[in-house]
Amino acid sequence: MRHITFAVVAFALAVGVAAAQEKPVRLKQAPGLDKVEANCAGCHSLDYVPMNSPFLNAAGWDAEVAKMINAFGAPIAAADAKVISDYLKSNYGT
Amino acid sequence: MITRRGLLASAGMGTLLAASGAAVQEFFATGAGAEGALKMSPMLPDGTRTEALLDTLPGKKPLIKLSYRPPNYEAPIEYLRSEITPNDSFFVRYHLAGIPQVDAASWRLTIGGEGADKEFSLGLNELRQLPSAEVIALCQCSGNRRGLFQPHVAGVEWGYGAMGCAHWKGVRLKDLLERAGLKKEAVEIVYHGADGPVSDKTPAFVKSLPVAKAIDDATLVAYEMNGEALPHWNGFPVRLVVPGWTGTYWMKHLTSIQAVTKPFDGFWMKSAYRIPLGKFPIVARFPTQETATNTPITDMVINSLITSHNDGDSIKIGSTVAIAGIAWDGGYGLNSVDVSTDGGKTWTDAALGENHGPYALRSFMLPFVPRAAGAHVIMARATNKIGQSQATTLIANPAGYHHNLIQSLTLVAS
Description:
- Chain A is built from five helices and no strands.
- Chain A is mainly α.
């Protein structure tokens, strides 16, 4: 699973010429941030997280993570998905 | 009888402004940029307001960056003060981050499918040599103003600027489908572009239109935007232009058009961009995609935007200010824009600017002289020729589409 994630990131960087001047998005330093960065940033910049805050409750963030996996095919291991959900609920939830 | 509105409409916005006093002229002369601090609606989520910033994509003026990748950038309200939005001010919206720089020389568009007699393909020069058609049309994201929904719904938290109106030139989609020999059995036209997902597990952005809309004279395969090539960020070299319908159908970097005899069941039709049936006063139907409970979003709802002021702006007692903005609908024709300067107690018919056709933005303006100190609540309400008017109560829906609640701004006179 890990090598799939890296392949996704590599592709994102390859097409990055068109995305131009993306600046680093700094999310809150808290447990789980490493999993968020490793699993989410391959397909989209992390500004999607603060943009969607703080109005999602725990069920709302669970649904977002599930959508990324089930509808958009994000290759996220179940254990990582839980860490990511917990991070989002604790730091960007209501 | 020549009404004030009719007279001004026929004379155009220039005369209108000249007739309305120096203060109004001064406003328009200075109102062309987005200088100064980024002003965002306090209705937006706190995180959206904190994270957004003015950022300049190559070839663009500074736009409000909501997300870098995929790039989702909206126009500051100041860029929407004219009926035609310049290419460098036009908003940018992508679903997926695999966005190639398309090479014009090698780009090709394929037209065919099992609902057509034959398949053929065209290069850009060949397309440009076919009989052309033009339309001035507004492209507005289905989720424009999503960030203003209360309660908030997840997604790209747009303010007011996920929209732009351009003069498009291209080839009628109808002509290309005729050349492919569109069969009577065809029910939808399915199409996609060169951009796509980062992961091959993510559904590619593929859309469909009902045949009736696809063969409408106004639906274009466009290679020109305001007299120039399309900007990369707006679909170079060719995008679909679907006047009246929301931006989700306006495929950028178009590469494939396929007629099909069965409803297309891809994610971006079957699951995304759906609205509940029976909630909105929609006219254009998409029968092959409707379920018992929902339908793909289709035409834009009647709407308007005050562009002359931001909420909380200061004005001077006794001085004329222009309450001005833009209005639009799904192509049925704007009838009037009423403006209230007393929080909706009384309404006055605003002067309308030049009519660029049913799919274009139309300007409106009402001079206002505040006589008392304190707050003046300004509102605008557009009505179209089929009797539709903006919502007085926001119509909640799961994905936050079709926000056309009457705007309300407070101006403070002193």
